[in-house]
Amino acid sequence: MLVQDRVTANPNPKPPKSKIKSTINHHHEDLHQRFSESKSLDFSTWVSENFYKIITVTVLIATVAAIFFLRSSGDTAAFLYLQSQAQPLDKTHHFPRINWNNIPAITDKSSPYANFRSEKWIVVSVSHYPSNSLKKLVRIKGWQLLAIGNSRTPNDWSLKGAIFLSLEQQASLGFRVAGYVPFDSYLRKSVGYLFAIQHGAKKIFDADDRGEVIDDDLGKHFDVELIGEGARQETILQYSHEDENRSVVNPYVHFGQRTVWPRGLPLENVGEIGHEEFYTEIFGGKQFIQQGISNGLPDVDSVFYYTRKTGLEAFDIRFDERAPKVALPQGVMVPVNSFNTIYHSSAFWGLMLPVSVSTMASDVLRGYWGQRLLWEIGGYVVVYPPTVHRYDTVGGYPFSEEKDLHVNVGRLVKFLVAWRSSEHRLFEKILELSFAMAEEGFWSEQDVKFTAAWLQDLLAVGYRQPRLMSFELDRPRASIGHGDRKEFVPRKFPSVHLGVEETGTVNYEIANLIRWRKNFGNVVLVMFCNGPVERTALEWRLLYGRIFKTVIILSWQKNEDLAVEAGHLDHMYKHLPKIFDRYSSAEGFLFLQDDTILNYWNLLQADKAKLWITDKVSKSWTTMSTNRNTDWYAKQAEMVKKVVGSMPVHFQVNYKGAMKSDQSLVIGSSEIFYIPQHFVTDFVDLVGLVGDLDIHQKVAIPMFFMSMDSPQNFDSVLSTMVYKRKPPPDNSTLYSAQVPAVHPWNVSSEQDFIKLIRIMAEGDPLLMELV
User: Fold this and answer.
1) Count of structural domains within the chain
2) DSSP string of 571-622?
3) What is the pLDDT of residues 133-158, one digit of tens each?
4) Cα angle 746, 748, 751; round to 5
5) Boundaries of domain holding 185
6) How far apart are CA 650 and CA 550, in angstroms?
7) Where is the region Disordered (predicted)?
8) 426-439 and 445-460 helices cross at what angle (nearest 10)?
9) Which domain CATH number covers 550?
């Protein structure tokens, strides 16, 4: 991820040395006064009188020692894990209680700018001496630049025309939030937002010191004025709300870059690169949050940065400046960042940057959180053509630092769209949502307290909370008539592909990806991982998430951080009904084990209304006589016989018609199979018939399939797969890009995954962008 001054936030930052020194002197004098009169006590008496103090101090020392050990031992992951765990919250004891009518005003009495007022502010965080970009930013006519310092900012920082607030000046302003924000991070901008509001702000441009405003004019594309003579009285193109299952979009597609995606876009949505079939329109005036696009180095995540970056050549990606701005309807969200965004006063409450998450995730979470609350006041986000040019001058962050963001952001969007509140004032809704997000583990209780402090500070500096508006999502959605449909076909701008610009060949490959996605975009992939999920789960999602509706990963052990569900492979069929229920609108479900590679490009001819299984692959599907095998087979056959005897007539007729003898048993390895939606009810009924019986997956799946339909009706798409019981010494000799699937294949590390991707690129060349 490439954002301003991104370092991991310390939730308990160390204050500057000057503050530490004054604090020590104060405590030294206090201790001198308290112990000036000595007492003559023997040791046992002293211990008995101070027993509880001794226990308390001992626990405190042990805690500090443990934290110091984690810090110094190099186990950063362990320490960050402890930092990030949100404890379950009890609303009775942890929900902040605020008397909204009794919040004293905070006025600027200490800074040299106490009497200064301006309606338009640019707020940036600075850690180094003024950059060339910042020197241009300060000269933008009609806007006041506010630079917020941190513990890394030079003491003699200065820029003519800018207001600079050092740590000491920030502390003297009296804002409650100052006690929560880390000393060494761009998150201190929250103090700056309050200062700007206190000094008359009506619009705030959230920026960084690496972006240059195109043509030095923020009003060229942004809607700086929403009302009055300067406002553009025009309708705005809006994404369609017709697809009720869509909750997030990639705006870069609209502006000409189909293979680039913004930081904060769920990875499962990266493959959605088709342009809109149609748009609708909305009247302007309530675009209270305005997200600009950045040329040069746009806001991208580390996955994009490292899969597209070659050598030391800087990115210079361009977007279509002639594309119209586009609005987001209620129910659909877009990533919003903290370095190219205008907030109007009605959305100032949404500027709060959370402090309990990593700085790489803070502005992304703020953006989604703010969009959801914006719907409560009838506002919306609009994305604008390129407004700044950012230079690629620094390296990206490791993927591991963004892992939590990639894992949680998709779940966060779904949570926010579904969230409802019965509170009657906006600030009460804001506080309730912050608490709910802590309960769900998206941030910690620290941000609940921070939200309470932020809202009180807003009121203290004279901000008035907007009134609530009617909520559209809970009303029946109006049908979109032909006359309401507006067309816009985005231009296709050159992008980077393996270090070169895209060509006609690449465009052909993108067309293939669109076709595969269109075919399988409503099919859920259920994947069981025998290998280490901490090394492969995200990679599997990145590979198959481009094609399928979603990728659900199960393993022997649950891993909440990676969104991996627990399941037992021997009885995996018993877990599937829960997944079917969660995705009741899906077209079908494809089950896959991680030792089988899926060549999805060879599945287009398959009938998604039929069952798929490896019944025609001899080494995968075997009929055995129960009279000639071990007790295990005999017990399995006995349980199958019991289930078949309890089946309704249609299941029983199908099964017995497929089996030639009741003394035989079909064993199917079941590494891959597909169930269309209209067979889901049958599958669930059959699972219910098995009940608590210990029928193995390899026995249950063939029994279910033969009961649901006649094998002659199965689609034969998997019949040509490569199937070996044991892998050859050289895996590469086993693989073929011309078959639908390959088994077996071992992927247990990122290196194995990279090797696999390079081989699979024969069928899908765009996969090379992932390595």
Assistant:
1) 2
2) GGGGTHHHHHHHTTT-SEEEEEETTSEE-GGG-TTS-TTS-B--TT-TTTEE
3) 999 999 999 999 999 999 999 999 99
4) 100
5) 116-209
6) 32
7) 1-21
8) 160
9) 3.90.550
